[in-house]
Amino acid sequence: MLGVCQKNLRGSRSNILSPGRKRDFSPVPWSQYFESMEDVEVENETGKDTFRVYKSGSEGPVLLLLHGGGHSALSWAVFTAAIISRVQCRIVALDLRGHGETKVKNSEDLSAETMAKDVGNVVEAMYGDLPPPIMLIGHSMGGAIAVHTASSNLVPSLLGLCMIDVVEGTAMDALNSMQNFLRGRPKTFKSLENAVEWSVKSGQIRNLESARVSMVGQVKQCEGITSPEGSKSIVEGIIEEEEEDEEGSESVNKRKKEDDMETKKDHPYTWRIELAKTEKYWDGWFRGLSNLFLSCPIPKLLLLAGVDRLDKDLTIGQMQGKP
To answer: Ranges for the AB hydrolase-1 domain (predicted)?
Structure first.
């Protein structure tokens, strides 16, 4: 629902192993799948925000790709390599605010309205007043943001809309259990390889090839962990500072900070975004999404695992031939 399970958009030979062969969970660079990377600056009232985009292709319409919650533009890496070899187009995969390598002044504002405006602003910053034909493609949360962007007419050259693996009815039903799911995830990882391995074995990402390139967009090094020497100096600094406090809470606070730092040293990677803290925006992403999608006056496509996943509004729309 939030993008916590990434679909296998392309059959991957890296998922097929001969008996006894050990799977490789080491990360691979984005440059194996995208041709270039750019940080797009967007002016706003409080200064500048910087949005990370990954690009491929030089001709044809632009496929603007929006990832699911907790993921990043790198979740589209395998898709990009597959589609660019088959279709003459340009790929622009965007790290939405609060995700990946995008840096904004207010990363906690993940409302549908704000993120939809971000998409429009990035398009304007990249292409000016004469953008090329653009098709919005979004997965899960990104699909919802694509619909909000299209319905608000924030991309003037929009030629089509594709929403993947998101239905209002199913998404709204899943919200109640999402916090339990998030609490069940590990909070830290020993290494990037460990994060990739967990993502595959837990089923969060079902394509090993995609996991190896995209997990680096989901996790980051814990703050303050740069090297064993750096970690040691931080711990010593905390101890020295705590020793100046009044006795009583001194030893308790010192032990707690030492324990926290030891945990970070043993597990130096954590999630880039705390999805649990975005709960207040979930309803706004998905409520009314089906009718909003159906009312967009452009060619549109809904990709789901099966028609049984359609909610009432989409079922009626399908019967009326609206999609």
So the answer is: 63-189
Q: Please, is 111 exposed, middle or buried when counting C-beta atoms within 10 Å of its C-beta (0-12, 13-18, 19+)?
A: middle
Q: What angle do the packed helices 112-127 and 279-286 form, to 10 degrees?
A: 70
Provide the H-helix boundaries in 41-140: 77-84, 112-127
Residues contacting residue 64 through CB under 8 Å, at least 6 positions apart: 92, 94, 119, 123, 134, 135, 136, 137, 155
Q: What pTM did the predictor assign? A: 0.80
Helices (H), the chain: 77-84, 112-127, 141-151, 168-183, 192-201, 208-214, 228-242, 250-266, 279-286, 289-295, 312-319
Q: Which of 215, 200, 203 is nearest to 29 (CA)?
A: 215
296-321: b (≥16 Cβ within 10 Å) or e: beeebebeeeeeeebbebbeebeeee
Cα–Cα distances in Å, from 201 out to 77, 242, 305, 309?
20, 41, 21, 25
pLDDT value at 263 more than 70: no
pLDDT-above-70 percentage for the chain: 75
pLDDT digits (tens, 9 = 90+) for 156-204: 999 999 999 888 888 888 888 899 999 999 999 999 999 999 999 999 9
* Contact yes or no for 50/102 (Cβ under 8 A): yes
How far apart CA 144 and CA 164 sit, in angstroms, is 9
Question: How high is the mean pLDDT of the chain?
Answer: 83
